[in-house]
Design a protein that fits this description.
Elements lengths: L25 H6 L2 E2 L6 E2 L4 H10 L13 H22 L6 H11 L5 E5 L12 E5 L3 H17 L7 E3 L8 E3 L12 H20 L1
Antiparallel strand pairs: 1-2, 3-4, 5-6
Length: 210
């Protein structure tokens, strides 16, 4: 099997480095932190700070304080991400996942995950007195990954697995839950890939007809 090219280092300001949250569940959104797997991989978790940003943007952050992410946390996150991707593809194809990958996911899922807590709102605007949700964890990064892993276990072992698809754009590799009524969704999103593929097809037909 040909090895996959190593992800190139990119400027954090590059739009392709933005985290896509269009998978439909936390584990698919996490797998999407490595983009364009089939062509030129885009590593969206190049450093610990990027992992901290993903956890925060995914709303899996525990507490208001700045999250401290270590190099070991980053390595664990990437290992889990790739195990998730391989197991998802195997399960989607009706195949038995690699036991080592399943064990990796189970190990992450066995850690304590985020604990929901009631807290006071940060603002008294509109006289809001209703408590708000805050997440708490002794080890925030590990807990966030445990939450992702548990989400994956439930997805892979349940009926929603039949709705997981891979984007049909050949330059994309994002997995998503097809929540359309007819279950005929083809793209991770129409704005992201659907329109691009349709425009490319139109241009190809125009060139062929000229």
């Amino acid at each position: 099997m040909a090895s996959r090219p190593a992800p190139a280092r990119r400027d954090p300001a590059d739009p392709e480095m933005a985290f896509p949250f269009i998978g439909g569940c936390p584990c698919l959104n996490f797998v999407a932190t490595l983009g364009k797997r089939h062509t030129a991989p885009v590593e969206r978790l190049p450093d610990p700070d990027a992992l901290a940003r993903w956890i925060s943007e995914a709303r899996l952050r525990a507490g208001p304080d700045r999250m401290r992410i270590t190099a070991e946390d980053l390595t664990a996150a990437r290992v889990l991400r790739e195990a998730l991707h391989r197991v998802l593809l195997a399960a989607m194809g009706g195949n038995t996942p690699d036991p080592a990958d399943a064990a990796q996911i189970n190990e992450a899922a066995a850690h304590p995950d985020l604990t929901p807590q009631l807290a006071r709102a940060d603002t008294d605007a509109d006289d809001r007195r209703q408590p708000v949700l805050r997440w708490q964890a002794a080890h925030p990064a590990q807990a966030a990954l445990a939450t992702v892993a548990r989400d994956a276990v439930l997805l892979i072992s349940g009926p929603r697995l039949a709705r997981v698809k891979e984007c049909e754009n050949p330059e994309c590799s994002l997995l998503f839950l097809d929540d359309s009524q007819a279950r005929r969704r083809r793209w991770c999103s129409m704005e992201r890939c659907g329109n691009l593929v349709k425009v490319a097809g139109y241009r190809t037909r125009r060139r062929g007809g000229s």
